[in-house]
Every structure is written in C-alpha cells, then in structure tokens.
C-alpha cells in the first residue's frame, strides 16, 4: 500500500474480526491494556513479552488481528513485508531495519508488524546467504534492545514457522508464539457475520448455518470473504438483469445467492 513502512492507526475494529477469541484475550493482556494502563502494569511489576509470532495457514486473519490490536490500543501501526524489505533495499537492508525500529520508537506506542517474517529469518546457512544473515543479525540486535524500545510491540506473521531460525523465537525476540488456525464451523459463521456488516444481507439468511454447511469445510477467512463477494455478485447480477425486464429486482443478498456462491468457492 501507499503507507507501506509508515505509521498510522488502522481502521480495523474487533467487530471486523470473526472468532479468534483466545487470541483477542492474549493480546488484551499483552498489548492493549498495557498501552492503556501502563502505571498499573508498572505498579504490580508485571514483566511480559513484547514480541509475538502469529503462525498458521494463509488467510486466517493474522494481519487483520494485528491491525485490530493497534486500533483497540490506539497505537500506531507499521506494516513491513518481509520479502519487500529484502529485495527493495538489497545491500541496505540492515540500515532499513535500523530505520524501521527508529521510526517505531518515534511514534510509540506502536505495533511493528512483520508480514512473511520467515523471509527475513530463515535458518542461517540455508536459502538466503549472507544478505539474510546480516539482516537477521541486525534484526536480533534491534529486538534485543527491548529496554530501549518501550512502547514498541513487535508482531511477526508466517505460514512457515519451521523454516525460521530458532534464535529469533527466544524470549525477548518473537518470544510468544500464537497459532492462528483455520476457523471451526461455528467460527466460519462468526467470520461471515463480521464480513457481512457492510453488506445488504437479507434478514432471512442464517450466516451461522451457512458456516456450518459442509460446503464450507476447510475454508479460510479469506475464502469466506471470497464466498460473500460471490454471493453479492450473484445478487447484483440478478438485480441488473431484472432492471431491463418485468422481473422484481432483489434488494438484498439472499439464500439463493449464497447457494450459487457455494458452488464456486473452494479452499
Ligand atoms: P496471509 O498469511 O496470507 O498473509 P493472513 O492470515 O494475514 O494471511 P489476513 O490478511 O488477515 O490473513 O486475511 C485476509 C482477508 O481474509 C482479510 O482481509 C479478511 O477479509 C478475511 N479474513 C481472514 N480471517 C478473518 C477473520 N478471522 N475474520 C474476518 N475476516 C477474516
């Protein structure tokens, strides 16, 4: 996006996130309330991890949660894409890492989000070669400066935690590992509800029942978003067709549109 690497408070609210209640609780304790009530955490001498790794299959809400956490905490959000950092600044990526952490400190409280963080942290001596190695070392230096990065919370996201260098997963670095799974049948319904907030869904449509439908098995949040979009398209097409005829144009997205969409979408 245009704001890549720059800070801003994201507009993703928790209502936009379906399911993932446990993660929300964890982030409430570890980040949101810590930013809102720093004196209380200080008073009780609570010392908690500031680095997190979200891992799990693609399209299940890792980016979305990170943004919602920042929104809820009223914190700035810096979005870094691992592979871009590697490629865009070849030879300068160490400097880029330093600059990014500096920027995060300047705009704290801040969530520093590293998407596809595995690209920056592959096991040393493997895929990347010396570029990755030097970048990784710089990243470790920055992560270890936790005392100087008050108010900066680092969240990494990956679909392939197994390729990451173990050293980055130690406490104080990406120390707290949080699994973001494929949604359960009920959670699929909750995700559909969250996604449907901005769409004219007919009152007769039972999104929870659709989530439980066998045809939704193994769909991710991103797949469910595609499903909803297909259903909206089906309703829109019907409306546009009806406008030139004597048929009655639909005003909402109905069951029949979801049924058509379900035939098209697969994981
Ligand atoms: P990747 O590993 O591919 O980066 P990700 O886990 O970061 O995936 P997101 O980018 O957060 O996935 O999700 C992609 C889109 O899918 C979101 O923008 C949203 O539309 C939808 N989505 C995924 N999970 C959820 C969820 N739990 N609730 C609501 N929408 C979701």
TrEMBL record:
GO terms for molecular function: ATP binding; ATP hydrolysis activity. The keyword Cytoplasm applies. Coiled coil: none annotated. It is found in: Cytoplasm. Residues 48-184 form the AAA+ ATPase domain. The keyword Kinase does not apply. GO terms for cellular component: cytoplasm. Its main location: cytoplasm. Signal peptide: none annotated. It comes from the Eukaryota. Keywords: ATP-binding, Cytoplasm, Nucleotide-binding. Belongs to the AAA ATPase family. This is AAA+ ATPase domain-containing protein. It comes from Nyssa sinensis. The lineage of its organism: Eukaryota, Viridiplantae, Streptophyta, Embryophyta, Tracheophyta. The chain holds residues 543 to 809 of 829 of the full protein.
